[in-house]
Amino acid sequence: MTKKLLALSISALMTSGAAFAENIVNADTTNKEVYDIHEFFSEQGNRVKLQFPIEQAAFAWQNLSRFYPTAMIERDGEVINLPHKLNDDIGKVKATVKGETKTLNEHLDSNPVDGFLVIKDGEIVFERYNTMRKTDKHNWFSLSKITAGIELAKLVNSDKVDPDDVVSNYIPELKGSVWDTVKVIEVANQATGLNATEHDEPTADSRTNPDQPFFKWIVSIGVFEGESQKMPLDVLGEMKRRTKGGQTFEYNSINTFILSRIVENVRGLPFNEILSDDIWKHMGANNDAYTVVSPKGGYPLMFFSMNSTLEDMAKFGMLLTHQVKSLARRISLQT
């Protein structure tokens, strides 16, 4: 059951880290340019554009704490320095995409990629930093969702959460709503059968149309601007059933928000503290990380907003592979 929860909770997480800057963002962006970027995202209707790879987002994606309130995910203990064993042949690997054949280096030269890192057997074998420095903290976007899947799986393993139980048993604010009929496993598998999905058809404008229920929720947590004055869980309590649960995969960041609240309620701590205590303090991280929190409720928004250096992101990824053995020799990861 745990493997199923973890695997399906982190599916469809790949997102672009692209930006259109040609220079190192935090080294080459002038004070005037920083001011203009802040002014741009402060204008009515522009905050929603932060999710798209526009010119201004190049700075925002490496400086998300300038635009949203955040909470720290603290490191501790020894810093594990990953050895470098760079292999130039990796940059020469070719792939054909949409009929065009390029080497990896050519791809990284011609596409808006901020950074690229490859680790094998605990060693850095290839790295490129195009628009960011090794010390810059880039937003993970939907890759952040894996954190909720991991923490939920741990609670299932320890019999503190029953995946076949309904969500409202863990989130009292949702009692008396449609969440009385939604199982935790359905949320983890992105198959609730409810409305307010992230890509509602046929127009697929959930993240841009203020009339869509998903947009109303994302306004309630302060990610986008809008007229909603409701608390986030109150907005979710208004969701309706559209189809039977557990039948159809429908990618939806609301599900990760729900899983994070379940984890917090069971553990009695904010999610950033849980992630710090369970993982970040024990993996030899180079730096603290941080996550965005909602102005209403102070909820850590783990569905899109882990921010860390690229190397620390890679160390986190190593914990989910056989390469964890190369870290485990020097660190003790809580289970």
UniProtKB/TrEMBL annotation:
Q: Which domain of life is it from?
A: Bacteria
Q: Which GO terms describe its molecular function?
A: 6-aminohexanoate-dimer hydrolase activity
Protein keywords: Hydrolase, Signal
Matching InterPro entries, A to Z? Answer: Beta-lactam-related, Beta-lactam/transpept-like, Diverse_Enzym_Activities
Q: Does the keyword RNA-binding apply?
A: no
Q: Return the EC number.
A: 3.5.1.46
Please give the Pfam families that the UniProt record associates with this protein: Beta-lactamase
Signal peptide (UniProt feature, chain positions) = 1-21
Protein name per Swiss-Prot or TrEMBL: 6-aminohexanoate-dimer hydrolase
